[in-house]
């Protein structure tokens, strides 16, 4: 890895802040735990992913619990909960005393689960690219590996959406721990339950979102473009940069409208120009609703490809840097051979696929069904209920 002076200074500044927080953090075994749940998604950058679906269900099934959310500037906790600023004294106190912890990523390196706490790790997607211990040596920092090793040792439960993902998680996280600590909940992703709602419910969401986005015609084919981030695409101080391989000069085929969804990891670099003239839905709070509103997905290596497949709608893969990406991170399976849609290297190829989207869908029908069987067989709309029963039980 290459580190510029500015990036090193930025890392030192973040390390200093973490050292201050670690001094204020007081995890004590034997302390009376608060009958509360602390939810966190992507370090408080968003209120969403599976933690949100679990929160919404717990508000109904466990009203005796207090609910807290980690938030960063500009993020508001949902109704029925209290927002705690990431790194604040209040946040550190709840982190050390809440009975339940629910996260889709990782707590800071200084986190230490105390006796009696129950930590539910939801993770944030079916893995295509290799994770943590499975990444080639030297391509991930020792600090990250150390943090994730401690993280996995603290998890009581890890949600898995499929048998495939369970194997990847066992390899990458070493979870469950060899001494028998921890339980993998192979139940599907709570965040995907709404994709299996009744047809009337899905249509209602679709119509509401499209109207909100200014899509006037019901005949408009709405295309969601959701690329992932690149670890090698950073500015001088180390901030991850946005990815958009569809430039502003690109014209969608007649009857198609493009939406752009930036990744949560690149929010710090996002601005109004990033979408290149498409409808910018980066700040839209619920990507699941965007899946329901869209007619086609364009992505690259993002785990949205696994979630979106539940809808059965066509997918196109824009991957101009696939050789470099595979070399940098590596995949768990032969993506090109199994992809449920065309692998495109240029925007022109994407446009051609959109112009013939019905034929493309037929061409990849068999591969799509095999994909759904491999990755989506547990997605029946009841994953949240299974998680609640296993982790939180009745009042």
From TrEMBL:
Keywords tagged on the record: Cell membrane, Membrane, Teichoic acid biosynthesis, Transferase
Chain coiled-coil ranges: none
SUPFAM superfamilies xref list: UDP-Glycosyltransferase/glycogen phosphorylase
Its membrane topology: Peripheral membrane protein
BP GO terms, sorted: teichoic acid biosynthetic process
Family recorded in the similarity comment: Belongs to the CDP-glycerol glycerophosphotransferase family.
Official protein name in the record: Glycosyl/glycerophosphate transferases involved in teichoic acid biosynthesis TagF/TagB/EpsJ/RodC
Lineage of producing organism: Bacteria, Bacillati, Actinomycetota, Actinomycetes, Micrococcales
